[in-house]
Amino acid sequence: MTSSAPVGRPLRPHGKLLQEDTRRHHRSLLLQQLLREGPASRADLSRTTGLTRVTVSDLVGELVSAGLVEELGAPAVTRVGKPPTLVGLAPDSSHVIAIDLSVSGRMTGAVLNLTGQVRARHEVALEGAHGDDAVALVHRLAHELIAMTERPVLGVGVGSPGVVDAEGVVIDAPNLAWRDMPLAAGLAEDLDLPVFVANDANTAALGEHTFGDAGEGGLMVLLVGTGVGAGLVLEGSLLHGHTGAAGEIGHVVVDPEGERCACGRIGCLETLLAVPRLRRRIAEGDPVAHLTCVGEQLGAALAPVVGTLNLHELLLSGPVDLLDGPLREAAERVLRDRTMPVSSTGLVVRTSILGDDVVLVGAAVLVLAGQLGVS
Questions:
Q1: What pLDDT sits at residue 4?
Q2: CA 373 to CA 375: how far, in whole Å?
Q3: Which of 125, 299, 337, 340 has its CA 20 to 30 A from that of 368?
Q4: Where are the beta strands (DSSP E) in 277-321?
């Protein structure tokens, strides 16, 4: 089974629907509330979701029977009268397999529970693998991760570099030499599990939106690894774009006289900012001066995006020693210099609190959203 969210679909349910999938939607509302706010009584769930107490009681019973929700007893402090019984997510009732293909030189993976906590980790060295050899490594990593948990596996989520369509086909990932690669379908057939594949930067944005410290305004996550890409969440929806290529800022030309990029163009942002190239260049000269220069070029490239979308947060995700400091400070300075105050007032430029796990956590969100309707 493979799937992906359609363009513009909200990341989480917002209210009642009069459709044939009403029960599934209501179930998602309850799970979403428990994921976001923690344990609650049935009466509290009825008030916060707008569902009747009868409906809530029925659905909670179903979720308890399925093992996704557990009875937690009465709260420590209660009012006069019979104390309510709290229910909460059973975090380890099922596990999720998450794979991150954005890291330079290796493929990383983890076993996570339903609240995004990592239970086990594993990785395999890329060793220059491309094309079908790289696909084989993804399959191997997935099998080895599944063997690391004794819990039922809810599904597999993969954050892949490049353009990924709604069916989990990697349309183009130059650094892995993938074109029209049916990654999700191949994994689903091999593993006999639901598989969800999305662009790695979009996946990182999902991770920050769900389990990070993102606010309510527009969010851009700039993912810096072997390549460079961006994920955008606007008004509660992940932005995919007309052909699923929204956020491919790494292949915007910023230096027409620069180095050749893996995509074939000259001087893409990726040639300046991708981790292997950035480390090589700072090793050859003044690190602070070079990081400042790259930060200024990054700020100039992002200013039209910030000005157009009026973003609230720009998160830099990648090696903190490279991104947090002169590079981030220079990018923020140029961003503010090149946009109107009304666009940049309140803009937050920071590194991700999820650190190196941002894509892994986001890949888990792909599964939670696809299988349980929560994010």
A1: 46
A2: 7
A3: 125
A4: 313-317
Residue 104's SS3 state is coil
Contact 208, 364 (CB under 8 A): no
Q: Which amino acid is it at 300?
A: A
Burial of 357 (0-12, 13-18, 19+ CB in 10 A): buried
Superfamily in which the 95-205+358-372 domain is placed by CATH: ATPase, nucleotide binding domain (3.30.420.40)
Name the pLDDT band for 8 (thresholds 50, 70, 90): very low
- CATH of span 214-352: 3.30.420.40
Fold of the domain built from segment(s) 22-89:
Arc Repressor Mutant, subunit A (1.10.10)
Structure tokens given for 188: 């689903």
Identical fold at 95-205+358-372 and 214-352? yes
Q: What is the CA radius of gyration of the chain?
A: 22
Q: Where are the domains of the chain?
A: 22-89, 95-205+358-372, 214-352
Dihedral, CA atoms, 226, 227, 233, 239, nearest 10 degrees?
A: -130
Whole-number percent of the chain with pLDDT over 90: 62
CA distance 91 to 280: 42
Q: Distance between CA atoms of 372 and 27, rounded to whole angstroms?
A: 8
Per residue in 124-172, pLDDT (tens digit) is: 999 989 999 999 999 999 999 999 999 999 999 999 998 899 899 999 8
